[in-house]
Design brief:
alpha/beta; five-stranded mixed sheet; globular; CbiD-like
Amino acid sequence: MNVEPYITKDGKQLRLGYTTGSCAAAAAKAAAWMLLSGNLRESISLQTPKGIRLELPVLEIFRATDRVSCAIRKDSGDDPDITDGALIFASVSRHSEPGIIIDGEKGVGRVTKPGLDQPVGAAAINSVPRHMIRENLEEVCETFDYRDGLSVIISVPEGEKLAEKTFNPRLGIIGGISILGTSGIVEPMSDQALIDTIRLELKQRRINGADTILLTPGNYGMDFLTGELGIDPNLPVMTSNFIGDALDACKEFGFRNALLVGHIGKLVKIAGGMLNTHSRYGDCRMEILASYAGACGLHPSLIKEMLGCVTCDEALRILKSCNLDKAVLSLLSDRISFHLNHRTAGQPEVESIVFSKVHGLLCETQNAKSFLHFLREEK
């Protein structure tokens, strides 16, 4: 890395790492460079979406006239990650048709259920890593004035064994790990350090006079708020999975109102009483949606089908096909409101807005719009 490789959290210095997506893109870039130049490359530079440039050693190099393969070793920094130390390989060969073809082989999972980042049948290489691979290979092609196409195969020899320790099998991703990462960088942070950071931001907002606060768990919520609702990106406080802890802080610091805006994949868990939505504490999304669907009259065979869904969007498709989506979402919204306000004992009053990346705005509690309007005016 050409930046300070540490961040300070909770009074401790923690080392940054880089994602499997960054590894795959860097390996592909190095292999393409060696293939098109005919020269050896023992390190490679990669610009991550976060803006941090990496300089990574290139390992396990194999060179032939028509193909080059190499690997980058995953480094998770001080973040606990089962893929830490794994070799992420890329094999690059020439292709007669223009463009970049990306696929996965040994140790990279294959999608078998709908509703995930990639379609059924595709390698579990998510959208951002695919973009990184394509962008970096196009850069190499331009450097060497290469006009034909390239084929890229990503593999992880340990991937199938590592995947047994992940949620991949349950999500319908078989045969290996997923190649992931939205920023390209792994930022380690203990739970308590993150909660302390959230508390500090909330305390500062309150000291500066805010009495109504906008909360969102993460990037999906931020994208919806800024893209769909036109909210200033500086307005929301990101809570990560620690929604309950954030509400505790709101109560402690004396906020009058709070508005929580989140993706249904997170907020559906709140309807089941989970105020920490991290998957390690449980994944009851389908059970909650299916139970509410049953209460609204969904046929038992379709309830069973819902329980097998991978994502909430896929479950919503079933509900929409039976015209039960509005009834179920209304019940869901009521239960979310109950658990949020039970946590704060009504002070602050908490409203919520639930959305989906596929279906857009899904439901909102009674005073959510007025809270949102107030926040816009106050800003």
